[in-house]
Amino acid sequence: MDAATIGARLASSVVVPLVKKLFAPDGPGAGLVAKPVKVSGLVAFRGEKRHLGETELQKVAAELVRRAVTSADAHERPVGADEEEAVALALARTMHCLGDLDMDDVQAVQLGHKALAKRLRDTDPHTTYHLSDDATRLHDALVEVACLHILHFFTQRSTFIARTLVSHSNQLAESIAGIDRLLERTPSLLAEDSAFEARYAEHIIDKYGALTIYGIDFTNSPDEWPLDTAYLSLELDINGSARQAPIRAEYVLAKRDRVLLRGVAGSGKTTLVQWLAVTTARQEVRREQHLAPLFGRVPFVLALRTLTRLWHDLPTPGRFLAAVRNPLADAQPHGWTDRVLSAGRGLLLVDGIDEVPEKVREQTKTWLRDLISAYPGNLWLITSRPSAVRDRWLAAQQFTELSLAAMSRRDVTHFIHRWHTAARSADAAERRLLDSYEQSLTAAVRVKGDLSRLATNPLMCGLICALHRDRRGYLPRARKDLYDAALSMLLSRRDIERDMPAVDGIELTEEPKTQLLQKLAYKFLLNGKSELERTQAERIIAQTLPSVSAAASQGNAQEIFRHLLQRSGILREPVPGTIDFTHRTFQDYLGAKAAVEEGDLALLALRATDSQWEDVIRMAIAHARPRERAELLTELINRGDTANTQRRRTQLHLLATASLEHATELTPAIRTEVERRAAALIPPKSITEARDLAQVGPVVLELLPGPEALDPRSATLTVQTATLIGGDAAIPILTRYATHPDPGVRTQLAIAWHHFDTDQYADEVISQIAGDDIYFDILTSAELSALQNLGGRARLRIGEDLGSSDLVSGIVHHKLTHLWLPADHSATWYWLAAFPHLHTLVLDHTTTPVDLSSLAAHPTLRVVGIHPKQVLIDAEPLHERFEVIDSGSVNGTV
Fold it and tell me: Which letter does DSSP use for residue 688 in this model?
């Protein structure tokens, strides 16, 4: 029973007299003392006005509990008689906490009855520890009801009315003064401002209503698409508050007036700025609670790279539009920006602290501080790459620091869908082609580990989509092109195409940046670390710099390293003094390139059984010249042939096989040797081999064949291998087998459900499994619900944890024809009458007699099987009364 239900059944005539007993009577007057009287000074069981003892307080609580219990119908009583006293004692303890509140009555009323109830419960959270769940719910509901009447009681007191009248008078005076200030604006000025703001809003919507991906030059790929279609709601992490749940990016300004948002290159900072600007300009946010702070505001998008390039000094508000080269700058009414910001109606979106020279950043901080001081009450969002400014850089200005989180697997799937939706043209054939691209890419990102590791932010996802389309859906053998394109975009072309100046006085082309970064990446690998101290990274750059003359001529090691950190998009400083690569994939790719250039092929072969080096070796195959490639693959084969364990032999041979996709040119004899060893392992020929393959890890998933040309046993073992490996990457593999003609293969898929996320597997695999000739294993209520959402299935095998009531409510009645249950699932079987088309019941292993007499109530049930056959019912052989199905032979697989 909740608070609303109890409140409806407890009349005010019952509650009000009880509530009044909790407080001492007040005298006349406003009570306008220097320090207002707190609630703790008003209660009748504390302080000088005490006239209600703890015994009387308990009686008040007991009466509330009694009235709540007796007001309920007999079948809806919230607790039994034996718990009423315990609830009353707990309620008295909670109400006693009124004496500990550090607030006055006006503040309590402003807080609201639910928040006040929570404050009381939180004061002594142990109060309800000994209560049952039902008793706790009754206690909490009564506290809310009491607080509702307490606050109403406060508002009726003469002192409350007098004090709030004075408070309201002050507020009214301030409001009148504000109106007077507004009235100073002439009607014509108001009209002029309003007309301009409408025109300005249209410009913002038009200018920022489309997204552009920089660094992509593929002929068939769009470089711009509508913001409404492409915007993806990402998550934000609250810096320094790991225990707090992430929030959605569009709610960044909900309950926050000032935010410093950090994010790596391409993580979506500028996209979020655009979305907030357009959403605010459209003024369609009134009904969204989290977006309500944007209503009635005017957005100003201030890209710092533009401001600092065009202006010697950062602009004052009147020059905002001119500074960002807004074509409406000359049309704005005189003093318009000042009036908007003075009224607290501005949304200031300051993008790219990292994109101004370091010496200008402190000047920028001063500019921000002065603006905030001169124009309080506006909303501020400032963006930066993580390492550009120190932690708490704007703490003195009360900025909250947030970070854009990496995209989740679901975010990536949504992005791929939206990208392809935006890219579709009116041509029907083109739409069908893009549909197939979307499906294949979604599957590839799940299956290909290196792809999924790259697809962590919108920029990289956009690159993957563009390359996939440009190559007409062909990615597996063009993986190196993906990395080359990504690195080229991040290292040089993105800043060039955005017309970025050399903010730190250093201009490096792509080649010297790559040389320095790959040396750094290789040191990471050799040290077996994913991060290094900044001083160590600077030493590595210092050692490499003399051989990279294009960089050495522009600065020392510290300056060059700082440039790479802030402008490459490849490095980051997650915590001060510690450096890592934004993507481990880039570290592996660049480190492999360095290993090949230094001729360390023998070292790569020695590290081949270390899982941390698997991707490095595969990337080395991509970078190597044909002779080097053949040498490395031969070494992997030979080491596998002489390995002292089957697992190591399998691991090395499969790594060589997985590396073939990167071998664009290879001696045919070497390729044949690699493929011959793979053929001996895949597909597995026994459950033992399937287990051995699974031990190698996710790399095997990329080598498993589809169902085409596989006999039923090989197909079943392949499905078992993918199931044993598990993880999201296995699901697309299993989906390919969902329509296999053999019922044994499909049964294996149905059994595999419990190894994966219930809803995802149901959507992608269970929904595709064809035919009513197999049993679907149902072990949990979540699986039962998911299958119900899919329309049900004809044959179900139920686990021990689901009761008959679960099945009656969760199974699609008209669909069920075969049901397989534990033999002792029910004392009676009358509930089976709920399924009109059920005709076969299989009862699994039992050692005790089972009474099936109630099955006579079922209209169509004709066949009942029990395994083992020798079970007797009422001392009669089962087969004399029923046709027997041996459960061991159902489908020939179980």
Answer: H
Angle at 458 between CA 445 and CA 562, to 5 degrees: 110
Measure the CA–CA gap between 677 and 643, rounded to whole angstroms: 14
Question: How does pLDDT run across 413-431, given as a tens digit for each residue?
Answer: 888 888 887 777 767 887 8
Spatial contact of 442 and 416, defined as CB atoms under 8 Å apart: yes
Helices (H), 737-797: 743-751, 758-764, 781-789
User: Which of these, 237, 165, 198, 625, lies nearest to 403 by C-alpha position?
Assistant: 237
pLDDT tens string 102-150? 787 767 777 777 888 888 888 887 788 778 878 888 888 888 888 877 8
Alpha-carbon distance of 84 to 90, in angstroms, equals: 10
Cross-strand pairs, 379: 347
Residues 6+ apart with CB under 8 A from 572: 264, 385, 386, 387, 565, 579, 580, 581, 582
**Long-range contacts of range 660-665, CB-CB < 8 Å, 24 or more positions apart?**
660/621, 661/476, 661/477, 661/479, 662/477, 662/479, 662/480, 662/618, 662/619, 662/621, 662/622, 663/621, 663/622, 663/629, 663/633, 664/477, 664/480, 664/622, 665/626, 665/629
Distance CA 685, CA 688 (A): 8
Is 582 within 8 Å of 457 (Cβ atoms)? no
Instruction: Report the phi/psi class of residue 29: left, alpha or beta, with left for phi > 0 and alpha for psi in -120 to 50.
Output: left
* β strands within 22-110, DSSP E: none
In one-letter notation, the amino acid at residue 389 is: V
Name the residue among 702, 604, 609 with its Cα closest to residue 658.
Answer: 702
Higher pLDDT, 836 or 15: 836
Question: Is the whole-model pTM more than 0.70?
Answer: no
The Cα 89–Cα 59 span in angstroms is 9
Q: What is the pLDDT of residue 31?
A: 44
Contacts with 788 (C-beta within 8 Å, 6 or more apart), sequence order? 810, 811, 812
- Output the CA–CA distances (angstroms, integers) from residue 725 to 536, 722, 758, in the order listed: 38, 5, 17
Cis ω before 741 (30° cut-off from 0): no
Q: For residue range 775-815, list pLDDT tens digits in order.
A: 898 888 888 999 999 999 999 988 877 888 888 888 988 88
Name the percent of the chain in helix, strand, coil, to the closest 5.
Answer: 60, 10, 35
